[in-house]
Amino acid sequence: MQRSHFLSHIALASASAFLRPWAAFGQSQGPVKIASIRVIEFTDVADAQHRSQYVEVVSETGLIGLGGPLYAEQGYIIAKDLAPVLIGRDAMAGEALWDLMKLSDRHSRAGFYMMAISAVDIALWDLRGQHLGRPVYELLGGPVREKIPVYASMLGFDTQPDAARKTAREFYDRGFKAQKWFLKAGPQADSQSFQKNITLLRTLREELGADAELMVDCMWGWDAPYAVKFAKVVKDLDLKWIEEPVRSENLDGYEILKRDGGVPVAGGEHLYSRWEVKQYLDRKLLDYVQADPEWCGGITELVKICTLCEVHAVPVIPHGHHIWASLHVVASQPERVAPMCEFLFHWMPEKQYFQDSTITPENGFITLPKKPGIGFAIDASKVASRREIKPA
Ligand SMILES: [Mg+2]
Hints:
Elements: H1 3-26, E1 34-44, E2 47-59, E3 64-70, H2 72-86, H3 94-102, H4 111-132, H5 136-139, E4 147-153, H6 161-173, E5 178-182, H7 193-208, E6 213-217, H8 224-233, E7 241-243, H9 251-260, E8 265-267, H10 273-282, E9 288-289, H11 298-311, H12 323-331, E10 341-344, H13 348-351, E11 365-367, E12 383-388
Parallel strand pairs: 4-5, 4-10, 5-6, 6-7, 7-8, 8-9
Antiparallel strand pairs: 1-2, 1-12, 2-3, 4-11
This protein binds magnesium ion.
Magnesium ion (MG) binds next to loops.
């Protein structure tokens, strides 16, 4: 054998010895076929009027990926429109499935149809994680951190100044030094709303001190002139952001606040998909993007929104409607891209009621779940009955 041939033979043999075990590990295990997609309504064993709907994406191997709890409108679209598109396909082919869902209806761009896609997408990620035996944040390239900071979102708490002061102190002392309070009353509310909002905010800053992060959510209740006036009056209070001052379609209103208000502006929980977020980024309307994985197109879409926002140097702090899905995405992103999660303290117990694991932040942080998939199943001990929702 010539020397050059001998050397190449040795090289090939070495490469083959090295590659063989790697190839064995790297081989596709084949498709994970979707056997069925069911929308199930669970009834509480303690209260027959208390119910929640979830979507179950079931593999041929018997794994169940969960999405929800759902609005009834999502459940209808999933059962009628999305299930027929997906059954029999490979649950691992996430991009392909998302695209199929998106292309399955001309009205899929936004609203309940996109929210239905979002729920199925989350269920599919849960299924994939269970199949591979890894938490979803690992499938997404994380974890970047072992615990994720949250801000306390105070929707549902009393906003009378004395009550709010007491609650704010209690949460601060429990380690939640970033708090968002809801000041929905705007120009259409009573004539005293402006002064009431100012008084509440001054009370909170006075109670929490200069090191607390303080945010305001207007829930579409204001208009641009009201928001600008408010921003100027509270300039000394060092707000971290003013959120959703006007309706999402009113991009011009956001532009006025950005131009004249002098405070950071947040929004995006009601934006569907990367295309709607892009419109805001192109016009530099937001300092924080708050897309919600349960509404914007699921985990698959929120990851893309993170990439898009990173290019524009705008951090993503996801809206907390599905805290599990938000957590997995944030845990997979660099801190500068997705620094923290929102935790809605008043609503999360109900949202997680039927689940066998729940997320509860401690001292301002959520420790990452370790279970495969999203991290919870339905707690059978809480369920009196289950009923499959079928479209008429
Ligand atoms: Mg909000």
